[in-house]
Design goal:
The protein has 472 residues and is an alpha/beta fold. Helices cover 23% and strands 25% of the residues. It is built from 9 helices and 25 strands. α6 packs parallel to α7 and α8 runs parallel beside α9.
Length: 472
């Protein structure tokens, strides 16, 4: 997530891979054949990831307690995924960093030599392609295979980070060759790419083509298993208009695959320094679109950067200084882990609906503006500022209500189809969340004449989300 771009443990699904000899020519370079003894990667835990991993002081042995403390800060704020265990320097440190993750119930990607913003690192057709460095990087992956890597460390190795924001160009053959090779080489590990936001290109049509090209290759073996993107909507000049349209596009592009989004948690370039309500907005709105992962930018703002003055704040600064945002994000993450994740990870998204095109100027697809007969269990929803996601689970239907107003408390009125009296309960409030996972009874009255059940109104603080359960 560099400023040169557009906007300036969880337990890993275990798989054993078996390497077979042989190669074919794909495009302009060889792709090894691999056979796997187990299935592909699957997501089992709601992701709370980060850019700006905790600092690691060297020498590692002499700084063990300091490094452990830094990683505990991330764990205690409910983060579970780091962006790159070998982004700290020499690859010899990677095992030690993964061991730090194992000590603190975190997981991490390992970053490969390939950099999607720098074609000579992965594309043989690019001028300056370094075949020796590329070949070594790909060979180094064997170190992490389940049959070789210690089980304790493998459980906290999440996969390979292939790059951030591939430029909007029409030909991604070489990049998808790398993706396909990583998926075949180690099926139990995620091969991860993060896409650009919609405003990186000129038109919506161009962005759809960009996302489809990268995410939906005709060959499933060349598709990423997660569709991830970043979009920070709150600018000094006002809110960017395509935030919800971008969510809608990528929800459709992802299909049944997990969607991951990025909330902004640092003062960055021309973006507003995020407030608590803005961070709630940027975490709760993607959940309404079924997101199963959130990767904050950034956790720690001490990573060297050519334009350090552009990073004005963060969750942690200078490796060890905890800012007020730490408690804000910890509270949000606690709520997501305890209340939201159990629903999202065990449910199917039925639909996402806005009462109206709010905030002003936002481009929202007409199919997502709530209308009569469009939302299944929802007969009516009031409050121009309200967004909702409807989820179907074995335990019933869940309605996730979000206040899109980041300045004012708003009221949501909800009417459900049919007689639901006695079947409605509501989850804990998100504001100053104290750890409860209990749903309490919620007043509801059946109107036989209209064949609808009217629920008591729900008050939502700026950016707040609230879960309502409808029992079967």
């Amino acid at each position: 997530m560099a400023l040169s771009r557009c906007h300036r443990p969880l337990r890993l699904f275990q798989a054993n891979a078996r390497v077979a000899l042989g190669a074919i020519l794909a495009g302009f370079f060889a792709i090894p054949f691999f056979t796997a003894s187990a299935g592909a990667w699957t997501q089992e835990t709601f992701i709370l990831g980060m850019w700006g991993d905790p600092c690691v002081a060297t020498p590692l042995a002499a700084n063990k307690e300091l490094n452990e403390r830094r990683h505990r800060l991330a764990r205690d704020a409910r983060f579970n995924l780091l962006m790159g265990a070998n982004s700290y320097g020499a690859s010899s440190h990677t095992d030690s960093v993964i061991a730090l993750c194992a000590d603190n119930d975190l997981s991490t990607f390992v970053q490969l030599h390939a950099n999607v913003q720098n074609p000579p690192t992965f594309d043989p057709r690019a001028k300056g392609f370094d075949r020796v460095a590329y070949t070594k990087s790909m060979a180094d992956r064997a170190h992490f295979l389940p049959r070789k890597y210690p089980p304790r460390l493998r459980a906290h190795f999440y996969g390979y980070f292939l790059g951030d924001e591939p430029p909007a160009k029409p030909n991604y053959v070489a990049l998808k060759n790398v993706l396909q090779d990583c998926k075949a080489f180690d099926p139990g590990a995620l091969a991860f790419i993060n896409l650009c936001p919609e405003f990186c290109v000129s038109t919506r049509q161009e962005y759809v083509a960009y996302a489809e090209s990268l995410a939906n290759d005709p060959n499933p073996a060349r598709r990423p298993d997660v569709v991830s993107f970043d979009y920070y909507p709150f600018r000094q000049s006002g809110m960017v208009a395509t935030y919800f349209d971008n969510l809608s596009i990528l929800r459709q592009v992802a299909g049944d695959r997990p969607l991951w989004a990025h909330p902004l948690s640092s003062g960055l370039a021309d973006n507003l320094d995020p407030t608590a309500s803005q961070i709630r907005f940027m975490t709760n709105c993607p959940v309404a679109y079924g997101a199963k992962g959130l990767i904050y930018f950034m956790f720690n703002t001490s990573i060297p950067h050519p334009n350090p003055s552009d990073f004005r704040s963060g969750i942690v600064t200078n490796c060890d200084t905890v800012t007020p945002l730490y408690d804000v994000v910890k509270n949000i993450n606690d709520y997501l882990v305890q209340v939201v994740a159990p629903v999202v990870m065990s449910s199917r998204l039925l639909g996402t609906y806005h009462v109206a095109q709010f905030p002003a100027g936002q481009i929202i697809p007409s199919a997502e503006i709530l209308g009569a007969g469009r939302a299944g269990v929802i007969a009516r929803l009031s409050g121009a500022e309200i967004l909702c996601g409807v989820f179907d689970s074995p335990g019933g239907t869940y309605v996730w209500l979000v206040n899109k107003d980041i300045k004012n408390t708003k009221t949501a009125g909800l009417w459900l189809t049919g007689n639901r009296a006695g079947k409605i309960s509501i989850g804990p409030t998100q504001i100053q969340y104290a750890g409860s996972t209990s749903y309490g009874p919620w007043q509801a009255a059946y109107d036989a004449s209209g064949q609808v059940t009217k629920l008591a109104s729900v008050m939502l603080a700026p950016g707040e989300g609230r879960m309502i359960r409808v029992a079967r």
